[in-house]
Amino acid sequence: MKNIILSAIAMAFVMVSVNAQSKKVPAKFSIDKIVTNYLALKNALTKDDTKAAASAGKTLYANFNAVKVNTIDSKLKKNYLDITESAKEHAEHIGDNAGKLEHQREHFVLLSKDINDLIKLFGTKQKLYQDYCPMANEAKGAIWISEVKDIKNPYYGSKMLTCGSIKKTL
Q: The domain containing residue 58 runs over which residues?
């Protein structure tokens, strides 16, 4: 009798365990693709390449539109939507203004703040740096996110490529 009871308990445990494993756990939402495309945009601006910046801006805009917001934790969804409403506008402006480097850089100031906010909200697998240029944004200063320790300033490009400093590691 003991063996039957123990066997029944063991069988119930195995079935519960198998059932729990068969349920799919939803994938954690990631902003890695957004960050990758932001970095491509930043790198184009460091080279004063308005066409590449416009192309990267359009790609970034498309990335924002492709996000399935239902995959975002409900506690974070509103913040995500607030941040990306602004970020999409700036990515779109950059994408629509090839040949207008200064205009692209003005929008990049605000886009960088939005991307920084997204990284704070969701984190990232990649080691990133928050860099700062005190002269950008009409001498009010501005941040940008970089994947390399070396300063490559997207706000001044070839004029002052190494102007700036690392504020923190993300």
A: 32-169
